[in-house]
Specification:
Radius of gyration: 43 Å
Structural class: mainly alpha
Shape: flat
Strand content: under 5%
Number of helices: 63
Distance between the termini: 29 Å
Number of strands: 0
């Protein structure tokens, strides 16, 4: 243990009373919120006693007691820092720091006393005290000289100590010295200087202090910072003799090459040492000494980024006074064998070779630092440095490291060049070659990601190069613009770019990177125009963006129009074109911007509208400038902005409406701008509809769509060839990419449909197998108006119900395509399925729900009867792998329930997995029965409407309609609403008529319906009396017998209908629950199904003791959701949901969705929270049941139980700790240890936390 130095004692009264804060108010909160504090000693001995004279004056005595009490609190908190509870330590540190901010002198006094009274404190305790001391000193506005010397000596004594905390302890002591620098940096500097100039290499802690002070922006003022840097320079000069000391030099290189724990961050002492080393070499006079040290530095490892940057910085600083020496060393290093190995296809054979892999990156950074540090002497060296950079760029192994080093080096070089006043008169020979490198670099960038500022830096460098001599020729400029525009505009949307950053430990912000990159591109465009402000140059720049303005991708259009608008704005605000020059293709530009004003993207609309305004101003100024030159005969020079403003006002006779143009809407702004176009420019603006919607340009398609809309609006009712026009519009719509154009086309379809609904429906059905997105939008357009949507839906239902069965022949493939009349019905089915999701048809679908339900149920049976040998072939050009008619018919039925608000019925079938019953002929009746039963059990509001619709279907000629109607009616017999639409006698007559039906199935179902309890009330008591013998059958040995008996009891509960199980319900529940954990899968499945049926049957009845059984079943059902048997899991889901309905839980829709589709940890947490929220009184029962399931032999159930208990631990830790035993804790620990290996990260993290808590619980149970 390190021994503390002797410190002079200080009295509590050494600070003025007004600097203390009354902390007595903390006592109550401390005693009430932290129980562990109540166990602490209530008597605290103060280190010093006040003078007895203080008692003579009441006011002084009061102040004395306040100070003494606060000092005692602080002393105790400092003592408690020796604990090991992290939460407790965090609390104490926060309280001490709060006290330090309020009364730093008191805390300093107490810390001093504590060190005096406790010389043998542990290293960790002292480490925490140093942290507190640093905070106190930083919080103090003034530090007395006594404290300054005392704590400075304390820091100096401890910052070089070797302890088990290693560098962390030394850094904590060093930070105290850093904090003292805030008050007296010169005193600290004297100690540092003395240590550095001893002749021995300084300890790392002194370098740490110097590095921290140098890098801190807030510690010293500007003047103090300058003095500090001067001091470092003097210190470097005094350290020059040490360069010739072998021991000092070796120790220096040893520290510089010492590997760090993380190579991504460099400790302050090492970063400072690179700078200090460079300053020492800079101050050295001997060239041989400098070269020797630089060569030795270059021979160290180049593997890590911070090491490379440090080497480059050292050499750059040395080059300030030794440029020739540094250049010579780099040249020699470039010809060395290791450097040659690092070029091109470098393949390291051992780990030692990696130290040379990125040597060329170090060299590039060094050249950049040389340029940055050379200042005024850089110009003669620029071409030489650039040639070396270009060489390493082309001949080094390409990777991100080389790219970043190259860009950083060139940026430093460009910064140095532009800071030199003579740069614009200097011709640089390497500019074309450097531009080639930059274009290659941008082309190599991944086109789908933006994770680094490489693009921005490359464009910024290119922009800087364009300002230098010699100017670029047209080909170079064209290629540069093409590469830059593609590199920026072709990037994916920012939302997509964000997805590529998820693998980064510290992900960059793609939005910030993108904004900076676009800013660099705009700076490049504006710089080129500023250098050559002519109409030809403007046309040259704008023409490179026309392709991007016409892009099919919205975000590319948005970016292009943004840059185009910025260029026009820059031109109007800062430049003036020669009025004698003719502006070229302004009509085309206006057309593009005008169309983009209607772009679906709001940002594109705004930028385009602003661009139209700036284009209008440009045209006005140019036209006014021509008039001014024509009238005044001014010389052929460019007009100034002031002249042009005056010319505009004179030529137009008024002030130009600059603000007015920007306040107009897009259509008005475009029309206003058109007034200033010449005739050829107006010709450029006009688009024709000759080629219609098939033109490749999206803007041309927009114009054609507007013409089409105008024509239909005027002549729609009188059209004769509506069918052909509908087909043509559908084909043309495929090539439309501009959303506004599609809207115009769809508006035209709406106008046509008002007069030709039947013709258009028949036409559109031809390309509705399969139904593509274009056809879908056409159907939606016909449903804009509610009456129109109702008409369309009625026609579709009529077509749907025309269900011819293909004639069976003995020949293979006897049904030819032209005979496939059933395709019309399938097309109507596809369309109805799509329209259920359409907002335009929502009201119509809701109103037609009964007809649609019966029609779609019949359609499912019809498709099964078709038994198509293969799926219908899509028309040419359609996508492949479209869903089969069977799956589409079922999906149409499912979506009808989900989109019209009948999710309760949907949930019953989904949770039972009953949709599969609709996929085969034998099980189809069972599926229809379950759907109708769900409607009855959920008291569906549409039962009466469906009854009104199905009664006529019972006499329909089509057998399938009669079957569907009868199956539904059989279940509706259990609904009290039945008698509102059909009296009992009427129902008997309907079923009796079914006994004479040609279909044997209809006859059988009719006979079953006649046996319903509605017609035989006495059957209720008979069935109830039969229940006890059946319950005894649950305990038979045969699994098959038990399953059948349970199924029979379920069927009896259903047949009892509204009567329910009565008093037998409790016995059924108890017996069924006893089999939830049976080892036989079939019995578990049947027991849970029976329990769910019982719960459903008891809805609306007095529950009595059954309520407790329901609550006690919830944990078992919940845990069996993860049963290894899928059938058990399915029945557990459905029974759990039925229990929730019976108990009237909230958020039942969310619960159903979670049970049906969610699988992750969040779903389990939601289910747990639902259970615990709605059954708080059963907390202990649920927890006890979950603990029992930890003994389950099934891994998934055991895991689910552990998670259940884990959630309970998180939210009810005290209750859990009181209930679990040592055995339970051990079992939980074992289970959570296993869960640490789970493939899901969230579960692993959750298990880690629970293990930590349980270990504490175990320690408390077994101290």
């Amino acid at each position: 243990m390190a021994k503390s130095s002797s410190l002079p004692r200080a009295r509590i009264s050494s600070y003025p009373p007004d600097t203390t804060k009354d902390w007595s108010s903390m006592r109550l909160s401390q005693g009430s919120t932290h129980k562990d504090r109540q166990a602490a000693p209530t008597t605290i001995l103060l280190h010093k006693s006040r003078s007895s004279q203080a008692a003579l004056v009441p006011q002084e005595h009061k102040l004395f007691m306040e100070e003494a009490y606060n000092a005692a609190i602080c002393f105790k908190m400092l003592r408690d820092l020796s604990g090991s509870d992290p939460l407790r330590l965090k609390y104490i540190l926060r309280k001490v720091k709060t006290m330090a901010h309020a009364s730093p002198s008191l805390v300093l006094d107490t810390i001093h006393d504590f060190f005096m009274d406790n010389p043998q404190i542990t290293t960790r305790h002292k480490f925490r005290l140093f942290q507190v001391l640093e905070t106190v000193i930083r919080a103090s506005d003034f530090l007395e000289e006594t404290w300054e010397k005392t704590f400075m000596q304390l820091a100096l004594d401890n910052m070089t100590m070797v302890t088990e905390l290693e560098d962390v302890f030394q850094d904590a002591a060093s930070n105290v010295l850093v904090a003292i620098c805030k008050h007296s940096w010169r005193a600290v500097a004297q100690h540092l200087e003395a240590e550095v100039l001893t002749g021995n290499f300084p300890h790392r802690s002194f370098l740490y202090v110097m590095g921290t002070v140098s890098s801190s922006e807030k510690l010293l003022s500007k003047a103090e910072k300058a003095c500090w840097e001067d001091l470092l320079a003097q210190l470097a000069t005094k350290s020059v003799p040490f360069l010739n000391t072998d021991m000092w030099s070796k120790e220096l290189l040893k520290v510089l090459t010492k590997p760090e724990r993380t190579q991504q961050e460099q400790p302050p002492e090492k970063a400072f040492l690179f700078t200090f080393y460079g300053l020492v070499l800079q101050a050295a006079e001997s060239s041989s000494t400098v070269r020797t040290h630089l060569r030795a530095l270059l021979e160290t490892s180049h593997q890590w980024p911070k090491q490379r940057e440090g080497i480059a910085l050292t050499m750059g600083l040395a080059s300030t006074h030794h440029l020739d020496d540094v250049w010579a060393v780099l040249e020699q290093f470039g010809r060395s064998a290791p450097m040659k190995w690092s070029l091109h296809s470098f393949s390291p054979k051992c780990s030692e070779d990696f130290r040379w892999k990125w040597a060329s990156s170090t060299t590039l950074l060094t050249y950049g630092q040389m340029a940055a540090k050379a200042k005024d002497h850089i110009l003669p060296w620029v071409d030489n440095i650039l040639s070396r950079m270009i060489f390493y760029f082309h001949y080094s192994s390409w990777d991100d490291t080389l790219k970043q080093s190259f860009l950083a080096a060139v940026l430093m070089l460009m910064g140095a060049v532009h800071r030199n006043e003579g740069a614009h008169s200097y011709a640089f020979a390497q500019i074309p070659e450097l531009l080639d490198c930059l274009m290659v670099l941008m082309e190599r960038e991944c086109p789908d990601t933006l994770c680094t500022p490489a693009r921005q830096q490359a464009i910024h460098i290119a922009s800087s190069l364009c300002k230098l001599r010699p100017p670029l020729d047209l080909d170079q400029k064209s290629r540069l613009l093409s590469v830059c525009l593609r590199s920026v505009f072709a990037l994916p949307m920012v939302e997509v770019l964000e997805k590529h950053t998820c693998l980064y430990l510290e992900p960059p912000d793609p939005q910030v990177l993108y904004n900076k990159t676009v800013g660099a591109l705009d700076q490049l465009l504006q710089g080129l125009l500023a250098q050559t402000p002519t109409a030809q140059e403007l046309h040259f720049l704008l023409s490179r963006m026309y392709t991007w303005l016409m892009s099919e991708k919205a975000h590319e259009r948005q970016r292009a129009v943004h840059s185009c608008t910025n260029l026009l704005k820059f031109l109007n605000q800062h430049l003036t074109l020669d009025p004698k020059e003719e502006l070229r293709q302004m009509g085309q530009l206006l057309g593009m911007l005008g169309i983009l004003c209607q772009d679906p993207d709001k940002a594109t609309q705004h930028s385009s509208l602003e661009g139209v305004g700036h284009l209008c101003l440009l045209l006005m100024r140019h036209k006014a400038g021509k008039a001014f030159k024509l009238n005044s005969g001014s010389p052929k020079h460019l007009l100034s902005n002031g002249d042009l403003k005056e010319a505009t006002e004179d030529a137009l006779g008024q002030k130009p409406p600059k603000d007015h143009i920007f306040s107009l809407g897009s259509s008005q702004a475009t029309k206003e701008t058109m007034k200033h176009l010449s005739k050829p420019e107006l010709t450029e603006l006009i688009w024709t509809a000759i080629d219609g919607l098939g033109l490749p340009s999206p803007f041309h398609v927009q114009a054609a769509a507007e013409i089409l809309l105008a024509a239909i609006r005027a002549h729609g009712p009188t059209l004769d060839t509506v069918a052909k026009m509908g087909r043509a519009i559908h084909l043309g719509l495929r090539s439309v990419r501009v959303p506004q154009a599609k809207d115009s086309v769809l508006q035209a379809i709406t106008l046509m449909a008002r007069s030709h609904t039947t013709e258009l429906v028949a036409t559109f059905l031809d390309f509705s197998i399969p139904l593509d997105s274009h056809a879908s939008r056409l159907w939606r357009a016909m449903g804009i108006d509610v009456p129109l949507s109702q008409h369309v839906l009625a026609i579709l239902l009529t077509v749907l119900q025309e269900r011819p069965l293909p004639a069976t022949t003995g020949e293979e493939g006897g049904s030819q395509p032209k005979d496939k009349t059933y395709l019309r019905s399938l097309a109507a089915m596809n369309t109805l399925h799509e329209l259920q999701f359409a907002r335009e048809y929502r009201v119509a679908v809701q109103e037609a729900y009964p007809e649609l339900l019966l029609a779609l149920l019949s359609q499912v049976l019809y498709v099964l009867q078709l038994d198509l040998p293969q799926e219908p072939q899509p028309h040419p050009g359609a996508q492949e792998n479209w869903p089969s008619p069977q799956s589409t018919s079922l999906e149409a039925l499912k979506s009808l329930l989900s989109t019209t608000g009948h999710w309760h019925d949907f949930a019953h079938l989904e949770l039972q997995g009953a949709w599969e019953l609709f996929t085969t002929m034998p099980t189809y009746p069972q599926g229809v029965g379950l759907l109708a039963r769900a409607m009855v059990q959920n008291h569906c509001s549409q039962i009466k409407a469906v009854l009104d619709q199905l009664l006529p279907n019972l006499q329909c000629k089509e057998e399938r309609e009669r079957k569907v109607a009868l199956l539904i009616l059989m279940e509706f017999l259990y609904s009290p609403i039945l008698l509102e639409a059909l009296p009992t006698q009427g129902a008997l007559m309907v079923l009796a008529r079914g006994l004479r039906d040609p279909s044997a199935e209809v006859r059988v179902w009719s006979l079953q319906g006649l046996a319903n309890i509605l017609f035989h009330p006495e059957k209720g008591s008979l069935l109830l009396r039969q229940l006890p013998p059946f319950l005894a059958g649950f305990f038979q040995d045969s699994e098959q017998v038990v399953v059948r008996v349970m199924g029979t009891v379920s069927d009896m509960l259903h047949r009892l209908g509204r009567l329910g199980a009565g008093t037998q319900g409790l016995n059924i529940a108890i017996n069924a629950r006893s089999f939830f954990d049976d080892e036989r899968d079939g019995i578990r499945t049947a027991a849970m199904a029976l329990f769910g049926d019982l719960v459903t049957a008891m809805v609306g009845h007095e529950l009595g003791g059954l309520r407790a059984q329901v609550y006690q079943s919830l944990v078992s059902l919940l845990l069996h959701l993860k049963d290894h048997c899928p059938a058990v899991a399915t029945q557990a889901k459905f029974a759990f949901y039925r229990c929730a309905v019976l108990l009237r839980w909230r958020l039942r829709h969310t619960l159903y969705c979670t049970l049906a589709w969610e699988q992750g940890l969040s779903a389990r947490h939601f289910l747990w929270s639902c259970l615990m929220t709605h059954s708080k009184e059963e907390f202990s029962v649920h927890l006890g049941q979950a603990l029992c399931y930890l003994h389950s032999g099934h891994l998934h159930i055991r895991t689910w139980a552990a998670l259940f208990i884990g959630y309970t631990i998180c939210y009810h830790p005290q209750a859990v700790s009181q209930m679990v035993t040592g055995v339970d804790t051990s079992l939980l620990l074992y289970t959570f240890e296993e869960l640490k290996k789970d493939p899901e990260p969230a579960i692993r993290e959750f298990a880690e936390r629970q293990c930590s808590f349980l270990q504490k619980v175990g320690a408390r149970l077994h101290p």
